[in-house]
Write a structure and sequence with these properties.
Elements (H helix, E strand, L loop, with lengths): L7 H5 L9 H16 L1 H9 L11 H16 L5 H14 L6 H13 L1 H4 L14 H11 L1 H11 L5 E4 L3 H9 L3 E4 L6 E6 L6 H4 L4 E2 L2 H9 L5 E4 L6 H9 L4 E6 L2 H10 L5 E5 L11 E7 L14 H4 L4 H17 L2 E11 L8 H8 L5 E4 L1 H10 L12 E2 L2 E4 L9 E8 L10
Parallel strand pairs: 5-6, 5-8, 6-7, 8-9
Antiparallel strand pairs: 1-3, 1-4, 2-3, 9-13, 10-13, 11-12, 12-13
Helix pairs in contact: 2-4, 3-4, 4-5, 4-6, 5-6, 8-9, 12-13, 16-17
Length: 430
């Protein structure tokens, strides 16, 4: 993750952990995600006992100390001496024996300070570890209370949510010892309350997917269509939701990266989904789709509970770069919408620059498209039983969908519905 900017959740659900026992798999997940959630505070605690700048440590040494520090502070049932010994052994196995003495000394000091560091609402966990610049943004844009709700949610282990396609799948999961509870937002969502769904043949074969309820809702907003384009489709959860809901539709799913397109192919049905490798800004299609989904690359600040590494990688200047890319993708995607057709623009970002400001920038001088108030579509989904959430106003911000972690029971998402309403006017980019 540190070397190649990989995502923890993808690695932890991969074959890399296949040889581990269930207990060790759970421990690996706990340590990795825990270190990522609390990294800044762990670094602060470790620095207190170092006689050199923390950033001058080799990556392997830094990582081992974070892992050991997390276990000392949060895993109270693990003996302190065992954590110290394992941390030192990790450093030796990483060919950093010269640092073993330093690591041993720091870990012993952390272990002695364990009561002060332990997660009791005091000490190391008294604050919610987020970059200061991001917290200030949220407080300025969303207010202190909502920013606090988001930060608190980000530091908790989020529920594992499934998207199911049939009652038979649910029964099979139950027969495998996986316990499920109904979703809170979506009819076809199920919350895993016990059991490891990643070991189920249904998950391994791509017949069911782990998908946040907010993500399922965004896919449902696309509505009914015969020809559907998903511009930035990988890893494929929303494409899979569309394919399941609309088995008669012809769906084209694109991603610019060949390896992600291959992953996408494994995640979606072959019967009605055509996967292509192409840049969303230069897709080989004309205006031939009645539904288009532009779920654009974004900062991902609405998913920090599931992807906590994002908050340590993201920089303020990244937002303007992302916005330029998002505007280009939305401009290009609109060219593929048939007269009378609709496009859903979505992100998993909480930042206005990536959300309503992108839509406003693209549509400000364009009369060929109109924004459809999202509440109209939410009412349709509610009346059809697809959406089970009762208070629609909590999901609406102006004409747009907005969910906030810690406020709604899902990750943070934004979505806008745009309709081509002037058949006589062709869309021209620039």
């Amino acid at each position: 993750m540190e070397r190649e900017s990989a995502y923890a959740i993808e690695l932890l659900h991969s074959s890399l952990l296949d040889d581990l026992t269930a207990a060790d798999r759970n421990l690996a997940n706990e340590i990795v995600m825990g270190v990522l959630r609390w990294r800044s505070l762990l670094d602060s605690a470790i620095t207190e006992f170092l006689n050199i700048p923390f950033r001058k440590l080799d990556l392997e040494v830094m990582t081992a100390l974070r892992m050991g520090g997390y276990q000392v502070a949060f895993l109270s049932r693990t003996p302190g001496h065992a954590i110290v010994n394992e941390t030192v052994e990790l450093v030796k196995q990483s060919r950093k024996r010269s640092a073993a003495t330093l690591v041993n000394a720091v870990m012993r000091k952390l272990e002695k300070a364990r009561d002060r560091l332990r997660f009791t609402g005091q000490g190391i966990a008294a604050d919610y570890a987020h970059p200061e610049w991001l917290v200030k943004r949220w407080e300025a844009e969303l207010g202190h209370e909502r920013a606090e709700q988001i930060r608190r949610y980000d530091q908790q282990v989020p529920a594992t949510v499934l998207r199911l396609g049939s009652a038979e799948e649910e029964e099979q999961l139950k027969s495998e010892g996986i316990q499920l509870a109904p979703g809170v937002l979506m009819k076809n969502a199920r919350i895993v309350t016990a059991g490891d769904v990643t070991k189920s043949p249904l998950f391994r074969n791509g017949r069911i997917a782990i998908q946040d309820e907010g993500s399922q809702l965004v896919a449902a907003l696309v509505g009914q269509g015969q020809r559907i384009l998903d511009c930035c489709a990988a890893p494929g959860s929303k494409t899979g939701a569309l394919a399941t809901a609309l088995p008669e539709a012809e769906i084209y799913a694109a991603d610019v990266h060949p390896h992600r397109a291959r992953l996408l192919r494994q995640m979606v049905p072959e019967i009605n989904v055509h996967v292509i490798t192409a840049d969303a800004r230069q897709l080989p299609f004309a205006a031939e789709f009645d539904r288009v989904l532009a779920d654009v690359p974004c900062s991902g600040t609405g998913t920090l509970a599931r992807n906590p590494e994002i908050k340590w990688r993201l920089k303020p200047e990244d937002l303007s770069d992302l916005q330029a890319r998002q505007i280009a993708i939305l401009n290009a995607a609109l060219r593929h919408v048939l007269p009378g057709g609709r496009l859903v623009y979505s992100t998993c970002s909480l930042e206005a620059e990536e959300d309503e400001r992108v839509v406003e920038a693209v549509l400000q001088d364009n009369t060929a498209f109109r924004i459809v108030p999202v509440k109209e579509e939410l009412l349709r989904l509610q009346s059809s039983g697809v959406l089970v959430w009762k208070n629609l106003d909590q999901l609406v911000s102006g004409n747009f969908l907005r969910t906030f972690p810690g406020v709604q029971p899902c990750d943070g998402f934004f979505a806008a519905i745009v309709e081509r309403n002037c058949p006589s006017t062709d869309w021209v980019n620039g």
